[in-house]
């Protein structure tokens, strides 16, 4: 039986989000994935309060209504094995810190900073999503010299996997 992974790509309004959109050259500033209960999993640079509950910065799940930023949904058909491997990888990342160096790297690519975006000690949103997809076999492993993955890059990888996508009206 085939399954679907449901990814959200957002255009947020905060300062760091605007930097990601600008330097990431893709218009998106956040990448996340929705679980079967409708909760969003991703690495976030800011903590937030939703319905009197605190959600820390870093890689965590957050409730369906945690964010009101512009949202695009991308759905990818995967096998049961890919689905299971994807979620196993994602759940192992819970609680890991946000990777601020990723944003710095986007803005200073010309410095050719040596950075391993697959380093599992901290994550940037689109990089953890890409690593989970690679780990599960949803994407082929990216070329070794690929030194970062922006949310715009991740959207292109999803489209290359024939993802269906649409914009959601968020109230």
Count of strand segments: 8
SS content category: alpha+beta
Q: What composes the largest sheet? A: 6 strands, antiparallel
State the helical fraction. 25-40%
Shape: globular
N- to C-terminal distance: 34 Å
Strand content: 25-35%
Count of discrete alpha- or pi-helical segments spanning 4 or more residues: 5
Q: List segments where confidence is low: pLDDT < 50 over at least 5 consecutive residues.
A: none
What is the C-alpha radius of gyration, as a whole number of Å?
15 Å
Integer average pLDDT: 87
The neighbouring-strand order within the major sheet is 6-3-2-1-7-8
- Encode the helix/strand succession as letters: EHEEEEEEHHHHE
Key attributes of the depicted protein:
171 residues; alpha+beta; two-stranded antiparallel ribbon
What does this structure look like?
The mean pLDDT is 87. The chain has helices at 15-24, 80-92, 100-107, 125-136, 151-160; strands spanning 3-11, 30-34, 40-44, 48-50, 53-55, 58-62, 70-78, 164-168. The protein is 31% helix and 26% strand. The chain has 171 residues and is an alpha+beta fold. Strand 4 (48-50) and strand 5 (53-55) form a beta hairpin. It contains five helices and eight strands. The N and C termini lie far apart (34 Å).
Question: How is the topology of this model organized?
Answer:
Blueprint: E1 3-11, H1 15-24, E2 30-34, E3 40-44, E4 48-50, E5 53-55, E6 58-62, E7 70-78, H2 80-92, H3 100-107, H4 125-136, H5 151-160, E8 164-168
Antiparallel strand pairs: 1-2, 1-7, 2-3, 3-6, 4-5, 7-8
């Amino acid at each position: 039986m085939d399954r679907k992974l449901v990814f959200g790509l957002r255009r947020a309004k905060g300062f760091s989000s605007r930097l990601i959109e600008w330097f990431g050259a893709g218009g998106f500033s956040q990448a996340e994935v929705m679980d079967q209960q409708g909760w969003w999993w991703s690495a976030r640079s800011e903590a937030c309060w939703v319905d009197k509950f605190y959600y820390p910065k870093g890689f965590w799940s957050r409730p369906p209504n945690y964010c009101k930023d512009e949202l695009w949904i991308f759905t990818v058909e995967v096998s049961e094995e890919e689905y299971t491997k994807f979620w196993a990888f994602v759940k192992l990342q819970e609680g890991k810190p946000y990777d601020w160096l990723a944003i710095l790297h986007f803005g200073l690519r010309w410095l050719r900073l040596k950075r391993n975006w697959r380093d599992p000690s901290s994550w940037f949103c689109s990089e953890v999503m890409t690593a989970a997809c690679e780990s599960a076999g949803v994407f082929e492993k990216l070329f070794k010299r690929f030194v970062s993955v922006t949310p715009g890059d991740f959207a292109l990888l999803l489209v290359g996997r024939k993802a269906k996508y649409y914009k959601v009206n968020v109230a």
